[in-house]
Amino acid sequence: MSTARADASDEAPAPSPKTGSRPDAASVAGERDNWQLIVGLEVHVELATATKLFSGSANRFGDEPNTNIDPVTLGLPGALPVLNRQAVELAMRIGVALNCTIQPCSFHRKNYFYPDMPKAYQISQYDVPLNIDGWLDLPDGFRVGIERAHLEEDTGKSTHMGGAGGRIHGSDASLIDFNRAGVPLVEIVSRPDIRTSEQARQYVTELRGILVAIGASDAKMEEGSMRVDANVSVHHPGEPLGTRCEIKNLNSVRSLGRAIEYEASRQIDLLESGATVRQETRHWDEGDGRTHTLRTKEDADDYRYFLEPDLVPLVPDAEWVNAVRTAMPPLPAARRATLADASGAPVTGEAIAVVVDRGQDAYILAVAAAGGDAGRALVHVKEAFADQGDNPVVPAADVAGLTRLELEGALTATQAKAVLADLVENGGGDAAGIAKAKGFEAMDTGALESLVDDAIAANQGAWEKYAGGEDKAIGALVGAVMKASRGQADGGAVTALLQSKRGE
Amino acid sequence: MSAEHTTAIEIASGVRAGERSAVDVLEQHLAAIAQGEGAIHAFNLVLTDEARAAAAAIDAAVAAGNDPGPLAGVPVALKDNMCTRGIPTTCSSKILEGWKPPYDATVVTRLKEAGAVIVGKTNLDEFAMGSSTENSAFGPTRNPHDTSRVPGGSSGGSAASVAAGFAALSFGSDTGGSIRQPAALCGVVGVKPTYGVVSRQGLVAFASSLDQIGPFSHTVADAALAIEVVGGHDPGDSTSIPRPAPDVVTILGDGVEGLRIGRITDLPSGADPDVVERLEAAFDALADAGAKVVDVQVPAFTYGLTAYYLIAPSEASSNLARYDGVRYGLRVDAPDTNSMYMATRAAGFGDEVKRRIMLGTYALSAGYYDAYYGKALKVRRLITDDFNRAYEHADVLLTPASPSVAFPFGDKTDNPLAMYLCDTYTIPSNLSGDPAMSVPFGTGAEGLPVGVQILAPALGEPVMFKVAAELERRAS
Predict the structure, then answer these.
(1) Band of residue A17 on the pLDDT scale cut at 50, 70, 90
(2) Of the candidates A71, A82, A312, which has its C-beta nearest B103's C-beta?
(3) Are B49 and B75 in contact (CB under 8 A)?
């Protein structure tokens, strides 16, 4: 329900965390006396709609402040909200992608005063949200339940001038930009199924990939179009769940992991010293690597939720839901599987993850379709196409040509890299022509064999070791051949020759 | 209708035919305002210059052979809670001091498109909360029939402006009776359409699920025309019914032969004898005209007032939270934001508004919601169900519009509950969303006007107007 906010500054004395003695932060809770970490995540994403949730103003990040505004955005008297159909559709896509039930739903008002909240209430979904009861599978198959994914409007953005810590309390003045007010958000609430900070990181990474893949959001944590709050508690397995704290101001996946680790340790320290954990909202400070009290349960607002009388219930009919379902693009998990099949690379490997995240998997499949080798294309694209986005400029057929030359043994790995660099630099080209222009001609076996013999002669010690069964001694021999050929020799072919000379 | 008043239909037909000048019509009304407004105080703002320009444009259009529309040259007054572009819209509250809306309410747009000439913004109980217009921050409006008495409220200025001949037609908003009760007290026709027939876009909200805009007029026919002009679907209001305006003009002469007129046998008591006498006379008149009077029961009717005073303040507490001094209107400077909120709202709102904000905030609070707001919603459902059962036996229901004729100033200002009882008979239709209207039907004590209220089922405007037209014929 809540959006990130930093309006309270009642700093409670922090317990003294034993940061110095803390082990590597991979899984603090799990390693400390059988403590079990319990994490649930609330993720707010700004939807990539053309206009706002309830008005026609543009939904665009980075514009001049207070230019994308209108009577509804500003909460002017008499202004009424009209629900944005595109926002509903994107929210339903999220529901489908997260295996949720999409249901008839309603909007409520969440009432509280804050200067960047123009109506002094936020229109949100309360007891009957659009999407419920889904799940998200992490790449390793671990399943995290999704409680709900509901629509709501964003607030404006406050900038507090002067005073301490950029908070409203004690500041000299506050500037408000209402461009963000009324931007459509979906809040995705996980079940408290996450058990490690690494799972939390994976969850957010996977969710981000899904949101981008389905066109629901650009999901940029650094720009605030994806905001993550973590509910963290610890307990001993078999005992009741511990009191949870909600951590805000997590601006990167890395911060999320660090904050969870810190918070788990803080809570364990408290409990082990006989104290109790107080239910509160805490603010992650990237600078000092700690969480700090933002507000306690006692000073939580009473939001006085009630049904928004300016809107009617949202009842997506079956036809609409089916249309959304049918139009869903493949999700990252399926795309990773497809790419793994095509390339032979491991589905959980880094190359597959990186390339799918960049949206370049379709390109690799296009290389294969053009007669290229998907496995080699995967490596090339991962290494050389980082800046090319999901629609690389190099024609897929050109990369296909390159991988064919490699397969034929016409190019060494080093030569292939050079040709690839040329393709990237010039936006494509004929790989064979480029190789020829660069003087990359495959060495015939005779020339290669004489280089190998030279290397054996010049490195008798290494050869004796290798011939005597010391495999790693081959390195010096291959290195000598590569040096003599100025990198033109094919390392695989050199190894094969040396092996045959050893009598294999 | 008094002889000196010209109806909207007469004006529009004369102007459209080129037989009357819109400018002349306007000047007659401006002269009436100049003469009478000092005693009545119907307006927060008279738009003399804007109205003259609009009237001249209407005459020019007619001269050019164009039809300015069904309300050509009709001087219209608007309750000052409807947004008018570039023109102050105050809700008779200090908190909106200096605010000029950057847009017209849908109703205003449709009126202008129909050729109406907006003559001014009328006084009201602050944010439409009240039944006498005594809660205005700018002083009360006086009843044209007796200036020592209230015009009713909250749309007292709109009712008085028509009764006094300042405008041929006016518009108010009705959340719990704020059109029908002042119409009764001022001796004019006042209509609350079915919820959703008239767009609320640009109406400053009091209680969003109850608010509905409607007309005041001298005649039933003028009110019917007004509904057809401003009614009908507006995509800018999500609660607007996706249908054209009800067809109420052509059926006015149909009569009531065979219609079943319901008498609510368990109606809350408390109406003055003179009012009850006129209600009985209305039943008799309709029976004379061929209608059949039937007894019906609406058991939950009596709980309407209680439910209303939980639901309306709850919504109001939320709707009025935006007046925080941050973006527009009054701001009382203070050292920090919370103090600024408090100082601004303390200075900007009157007592009745504060009372209702506190009531509503309490009713919605954690731990009290179920007992108050939640229970009120259940009563609301019961009232709707009871009405629907009654409409299985009757086409319309008749009740008093107000328990009494216009009362003297100060009579109820020290007793909010006595003031709230003014709306006993009008509130249930707001809770059910059904249409209702008040039609003048003779006079009561001191020769003051009495209104009879006609209630109809949702979208039952046509049958409601048939009965109203018959009562109008029988009243004169």
Answers:
(1) very low
(2) A71
(3) no
Q: What average pLDDT does this structure show over A20-45?
A: 71
* Class (C level, CATH) for B8-230: alpha beta
Assign B180 to helix, strand or coil: helix
A309 touches chain B (CB under 8 A): yes
Q: Out of A121, A168, A302, whose CB is closest to B366?
A: A302
* Reported confidence tier of residue A18, pLDDT bands at 50, 70, 90: very low
The count of other CB atoms within 10 Å of the CB of residue A493 is: 18
Given a contact cutoff of 8 angstroms between Cβ atoms, the answer to whether A109 and A305 are in contact is yes
**Min CA distance, B445 vs chain A (Å)?**
39
Structure tokens at A361: 């998997």
As a whole number, the mean pLDDT across chain A is: 89
E-state strands within A154-207? 157-161, 173-177, 184-190
- State the DSSP H helix or E strand holding residue A98, giving kind and residue range, or none if neither: none
Q: Sort out which chain A residues have CB atoms less than 8 A from B328's CB and list them.
A: 74, 76
What's the one-letter identity of residue B15?
V
Q: Using the beta-carbon criterion (under 8 Å), do B318 and A304 form an inter-chain contact? A: yes
Under-50 pLDDT residues of chain B: 1-3
d(CA A256, CA A230): 8
- In chain A, CATH 1.10.10.410 sits at 445-502
The interface pTM score, or ipTM, of the predicted complex is: 0.96
Report whether pLDDT(A356) > 50: yes
Residue with tokens 């009025």: B320
Q: Does A310 touch chain B (CB under 8 A)?
A: yes
Cβ-in-10-Å burial (0-12, 13-18, 19+) of B327 comes to: middle
What residues of chain B lie within 8 A of the CB of A311, using their CB?
Answer: 238-239
Residues B451 and B438: beta-carbon distance below 8 Å:
yes
pLDDT reading at A11 higher than 50: no
Q: Which residue, among B88, B103, B102, has the nearest Cα to B44 in the 3D structure? A: B88
Rounded to the nearest angstrom, the minimum Cα separation between A82 and chain B is 6
In this structure, the strands spanning B43-46 and A173-177 are unpaired
The catalytic position among B154, B158, B429, B432 is: B154
The proportion of chain A whose per-residue pLDDT surpasses 70, expressed as a percent, equals: 92
Q: How many residues comprise chain A?
A: 504
| B212 contacts B200 by C-beta, under 8 angstroms | yes
Find all residues with CB under 8 Å of B114, minimum gap 6, and list them. Answer: B68, B69, B70, B71, B72, B229
- DSSP readout, A104-129? -B--EEEE---TT-TTSEEEE--SS-
Determine contact, residues B165/B155, Cβ cutoff 8 Å. Answer: no
The verdict on a CB contact (< 8 Å) between B314 and A306 is yes
- Write the DSSP assignment of A420-477 as a string of letters: HHHHHHHT---HHHHHHHTT--PPPHHHHHHHHHHHHHHTHHHHHHHHTT-GGGHHHH
Residue A13 burial (10 A CB sphere; 0-12, 13-18, 19+): exposed
- Residue B136 annotated among the catalytic residues of the structure: no
The CATH number given to A445-502 is 1.10.10.410
Amino acid at position B170, single letter? S
Annotated catalytic residue, options B131, B132, B173, B178: B178
Chain A residues 59-78 with CB within 8 Å of chain B: 71, 74-78
Q: Which residues make Cβ contacts (< 8 Å) with residue A160, sequence separation at least 6?
A: A166, A167, A168, A171, A173, A174
Query: What does the pLDDT average to over A243-264?
Result: 95
Is-catalytic flag, B378?
Answer: no
DSSP calls for B412-437 = STT-HHHHHGGGTTTHHHHHHT--EE
| Maximum Cα–Cα distance across chain A | 93
Q: Cβ contacts (< 8 Å) between B208 and chain A: which residues?
A: 309-310
CA–CA separation, A368 and A238 (whole Å): 52
